[in-house]
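# step 3/5: fold
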Amino acid sequence: MRAAVVRAPSGSFEVGDLRDPRPGPGEILVRIAACGVCHTDLHVQDGSVAFPFPAVLGHEVSGTVAAVGAGVEHIEQGQSVVGAFIMPCGTCTMCASGREELCEPFFAHNRLNGTLYDGTTRLYDVHGDPVWMYSMAGLAEYAVMPALAAAPIPAGAHLKDSAILGCAFLTAYGALVHVGGLQRGSSLAVVGAGGVGLSTVALAKALGAGRVVAVDVADDRLRTALRLGATEVVNAAEADPVDAVRDITGGGADLVLEAIGQPSTFRQATEMAADGGRCVMIGIAPVGRTAEIEITRLVRRKIQVCGSFGGRPRQDLAHLGRLVADGLLDPGSLISRRFPLEQADLAYRLLSEGKIVGRALIEVGADT
């Protein structure tokens, strides 16, 4: 099969041949229709996040199930599915308690070593040498993933566009629902209008948020935020974002989500929150980066600061699917650029240069 392989830190995405993968017990083989282009892949590619090489990246996918491994009962061959970037094992302490976004084997095996849960990869080059997997390694014609990481796509949903449900929208869902505790009518500020930030805006609207303020430094992203459901926007290059958000919301937002991962915006997010408000941090930063918080205000005004890493695939993908089926959420509205697999390197280069608004897709399979 064809796949985009990164052979060393800061290396390019080189499209070439790998051996066809096969699913093991509890796994499925998916013929990839599309894979989202996400900043997290860039952090791996440039070495900001430690990961073994050579590797196939790509962690939000949609496609058709080509084969199922032993013991898989809830997904059948031929089904259209979306794959989540978090791939729960289903049996560890965290998964058993319902907090599969913190699945221990996922982090220990996949995120640190590029394998699935038996400690081996499913990818090998034509010489038989291993190629490591970031999540399901979706920048390829086929991908193997634990079946628990996949959910059927609702009837009528666009197969390729649904790929971004598995990371951008799953991340937004976990932050808004599980950590943020979003209530209907709540005021919300989203700091950073990239792919995840814009997904958060769109999902907040679908879930009934009241005032939704998007903050960024790029007017094209802010225009997109308004189109997706933001009630107001703030260009942080033209106005103090903290003052602006506090003025718009009448003293601060009930819920603030930081989707950049920079020390300056981390602190700004805490200062945008209303008294008793909650800040949910979802932006990924290089390992070791820290940020400051004003301690006295944090304590006296009871500001909550929480981290959030994705959602819970076994329940959240189904809810996202219902929102799509009910016409409340349209993944395609975030997609601004589409590339063939052979242009994966171009897609990620444009992303690193800030030239992608919303989400870009690598389209691998034929339309269905």
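# step 4/5: annotate
The CA atoms of residues 30 and 143 lie 5 Å apart.
# step 5/5: archive (pending)
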